[in-house]
Amino acid sequence: MGPGMKEDEKRATGRRKLFQLIIFLCLLNISSFVVPVTGFALKTCRISYNIAICAQSKLRAVPQDIPSTVIGFDLSVNKIPRVQVSAFKNLPLLTQLDLNRNFISHIDVGAFASLISLKKLNLNNNKLVELGEDLFNGLSNLTELRINKNHIKVVASSSFKSMISLKLLDISHNRLQDIRKVHSIIQHLPHLQELHIQTNNFATFHSWELTNSSLKLKYLDLSQNPIAVFQITADVLPNLTWLNIGNSHIKRWDVRNKTLSQVSTLDISELQMGFDDMKTLLETVNSSLTTLRMNAIKHNLAALINISCSIPTMSRLQLRHYKLSFVSSDLFKLCINVTELDLRKNKIQNISDNAFRSLQSLRILSLKQNNLSSVPAATRNLAILDELDLSFNRISKLGCDDFANQTMLRHLYLYNNSISTLKGCVFKDLIRLQVLKLQTNRILNLNDAFKKYLPNLRQLLLHQNELTAIKYGEFRGLQSLQNLSLHDNKIHKLEKGCFLGLTNLTDILLQKNLIQETEINKGSFNDLINLRRLELRDNHIRYENNSALLHAPFSQLSRLETLAIPLQHGKGKSRLPHNFLQGLTNLKVFNTRNIQLLSLHKDTFIYTPQLQELDISSNELKDLSPDLFSPIPNLKNLYISRTILQSLDYLTYANLTKLEFLQARKNQYSVISEEIIKSVPALVYADLQGNSFTCDCDNAWFLQWVQNNNQTQVFDAYNFTCNYPVHLKGKKLLDLDVRLCSVDIEFIYYISTTCAILLFMVVSSTYHFLRSHLEYAYYLFLALLFDRKHKNKQALNQYDAFISYNTHDEPWVVQELLPKLEGEQGWRLCLHHRDFEPGKPIIENITDAIYGSRKTICVISRKYLESEWCSREIQVTSFRLFDEQKDVLILVFLEEIPTCQLSPYHRMRKLLKRRTYLSWTRAGEHPELFWEKLCQALITGEDHGEDIFQLTVVDREEW
């Protein structure tokens, strides 16, 4: 293999490597440009605290745009008919799934396979008929399954085998009918503790049909089944503590002693069985029972109570839905161990004064929802009573002795009665009372009821009464009070000092009253030094201007964290004094919704540096100063719906870098700019429903951001509609094609950079591998221009010959060639060192010399072949020779050069194959013959296409 072939192979290898490098860089640039697009604008759902809420959305399939990071998924109250195998494949972190109230009749096998973290699954209220093989595969961590109110008839043996962690199963209100089907379920559930199988039309309950081995069940609900035979002959439920067999029709009770010895809570409400069998039933649990629910049983109530209270361990007794108009003195004579007695919904009108005398251990008594007209005197005999519920009765007045001796009472419920007045002495003995509920009565005034007593009261509910004024020191006896509700009254007057003594109050609710600004300006709240929450919405407070108040109404409430001010009921607009919030240095939530505000002074929030939530919705705000938000950099939640603001531009300068939640519904926002969104970098939820969006290129960036960002959830974005221009009104905003709207500068930079890199590589590669070809093409081009320039000119040649030689051969040219051709023969020769024009580019001198001479004599030597400028001279001469078909070239070899050494000089080899030459080395014996032949070559005419005269004795055709 010759050196030329080796060189070609190297060049080919270089080209391959260059091509591979170009491909790699192209792929690298493309991959860096592609950005993963996940999107966070859900079509039908919203995300709240990492829970996807899709309830009541009329869905017919499980949405697939839910982020994979959610831990809860609420799909309740929809129209989903089927759960497909791919429904939840991308939700590996899901722990709670709610499919309640759908139309699900079929679930594909493997539909839950990817829910490896799921803990709770709700399939209630659907239309499932059959639970097929391996239906719940993948739910190995599920602990709670609710599947009640379906139409389940068939359960495959392997349906539940993967749910090894299940603790609660509710499959009630179905159509299982045979308890053996329950066995096929629970045999795979080693950790099951709670089982609900009520209303399944079971006719019998035999322990051997349920299981052959003991269970860990603690809670079993068999109620509302037509069970005729209840039989337990083996100790298969050793851990059972809660049993419900209410509303059944048991005709045969066969339970061996001690098989239910651990049951502590028994519910036999509405049970239909013989009295003797019921007595036997109660005797079965005689040693462990603590709670008995025995509601609406059609037997002698006194007898049932006596049997029940004979159980020494029984302490909680529930007796509802009996028609007891009167409670006699001997009804509970045996209930000496009862601590809780529930007698609600019995239509009781009167109670004997001694009815509860035997209940000396009673701590909780509920007489709720009866027909009592006064507080029964029987309660005064309950010296250790802790809780008394008299709500939803017909009590109209309270006497001073109604709660005599109730020194241990802590909770007293009197709401939803007809109480109109309170006497000052009514609560005198309730020294330990902590909770008093008097809401929803007809109380007109408090009559000093709270001035002296109730030193330990912490919660007082007086809302929904008819109070009109709060007088000085009205609550000064309640030094421990923490929560006070006075909303939904008719309060229009707050006397100064009306909250005197409430130094521990943290919450006060005064919304929906008739309070005016003059009342709060009195300093009525100055005594509430520990107040955390103040509700004043829906009152009659209105300020006509934003001038500073002489005395800020809340200046002493430095610990207040939540403040809500009221709705203006009167005519006219309102403003907020700019020092209205003075003193509220710890305020975190401020709600001024719907007070007909026209503006907010820029200094409104300079007093509230800790503010985190602001609601100024439903006002007539036309403009907001950017300086308004400067004092509240910690703001996280902003509600600004239903205003007449035209844009959100004020956010651009507000410096709300911590804002996470923005609700701006039903405004006049038409364009949401990039600057607005970037000004709130922490935003995770934006609600922009009902705005007047413009569907043109001004919103192009916003549309792309809504669809592509993966941080901020834009609620209901797929239902945003266009308002402008008119021909697009009603069209979905996200359907707008904005691809032609904007020039993507980043993409242009990418394309430009890529093209520049590729061009640089192509030029570098071409120069490296094809440099000689380019040079030759360049000189050919110059020669062509020169030839065309002088083609039609018949000017005489300036020289007879141009001598092309290397400087190393100059001695031979000067000493041999010039004397002979110029001195003796008289030829006009052109030599570069003598005849080139100074200052002119050398390549132009060469071209002018060659085209200005009849002939070109190339003096060839090894140095000549290595010379760059000699190579260029012969290239121009070659073009003239081959392009013009003129005999203009004479080759004179000063040295013998072997063929192998001429191989790299392919142009010279090409010339020698087509032309003859003179050799100086072979003219040693006959030099005169050499000069004669050279002279003849100079004389030779320019006939096209022929060599008239042979110039040498050596023929090179074999080359």
Automatic annotation (TrEMBL):
It is found in: Membrane. It comes from the Eukaryota. InterPro entries: Cys-rich_flank_reg_C, Leu-rich_rpt, Leu-rich_rpt_typical-subtyp, LRR_dom_sf, TIR_dom, Toll_tir_struct_dom_sf. SMART domains: LRR_SD22, LRR_TYP, LRRCT, TIR. GO terms for cellular component: plasma membrane. One of its GO terms (biological process) is innate immune response. Residues 797-938 form the TIR domain. This is Toll-like receptor 22. Signal peptide: none annotated. It is a single-pass type I membrane protein. Its main location: membrane. Keywords: Glycoprotein, Immunity, Inflammatory response, Innate immunity, Leucine-rich repeat, Membrane, Receptor, Repeat, Signal, Transmembrane, Transmembrane helix. Belongs to the Toll-like receptor family. One of its GO terms (molecular function) is signaling receptor activity. The chain crosses the membrane at residues 21-42, 747-770. Pfam families: LRR_8, TIR.
